[in-house]
Amino acid sequence: xxxxxxxxxxxxxxxLGAGALLLPVPRTLASDHASERQGSPIVVAHRGAxxxxxxxxLAAVDAADALGADWVENDVQRTRDGxxxxxxxxxxxxxxxxxxxxxxxxxxxxKDFTAAEVSRLDAGSWFGPRFAGARVPTLTRFxxxxxxxxxxxxxxxxxxxxxxxxxxxxxxxxxxxxWLDRSHVRDRLVVQSFxxxxxxxxxALRPDVTTGFLGTPAVADLPSYAVFADQINPSYATIxxxxxxxxxxxxxxxxxxxxxxxxTVNDAKKAATARSYGxxxxxxxxxxxxxxxxx
Length: 295
Fold this sequence. Notes:
- Helix content is 35%, strand content 14%.
- It is α/β, with parallel strands linked by helices.
- Helix 12 links the parallel strand 8 and strand 9.
């Protein structure tokens, strides 16, 4: 188990305040070892540590790092001119000031704006004044920050039906930035989506990459998902100990037992219950709270 250094402790105080709770975090999500399942689940910072900083921003990545969270989850979409950006909603209304900057562009869909236009938006003020001026990062900038922090990535392909061919675009950027080399693919990268065809496409294009399906397939259907996925990543509200065990009894696309990473768990009671179910990972806006409850 990995323990953050004093430098990380200092960073946490700077990002989150002096009362921040620092806890050890396991370092493997893409790999599978029997010993892991006997211990604490991996904790993944959902959209970064989005309980403490505006989601999917570099500030949220740094907040996750300050809390000792090695794994960060994000959402990737594509602008009108083909640039990959990190944003959850398929429109820009909730987490930016797009209505103020571009009042005549409703419904403000990400796909209708160029990367230059998106870069003008304030993606932090909605969360709090201290984050005013935060920007929507490109996937490239996001990867650079993860690399700087020595973090790992659970990447969600958001709304793939809206962005035909986005799987190739994502893999192209990952390759350009060095994230498809052996060490990243083995230990630092998982690509997931709610879209079955999207996960299948990633598997076909890069069979070495660890893939996850977001959702809760029926137990009877799980063998068909195991053909192209290494993980089944369901909502916490949809799982039980029996369901988790049913998933883990099967071997996934790389011949290892399927893993279960559940979302989005933000309080100690649910985190403890998820651990009792035997999940491999827990995705949370508050990774420190989950670690305290499960570690």
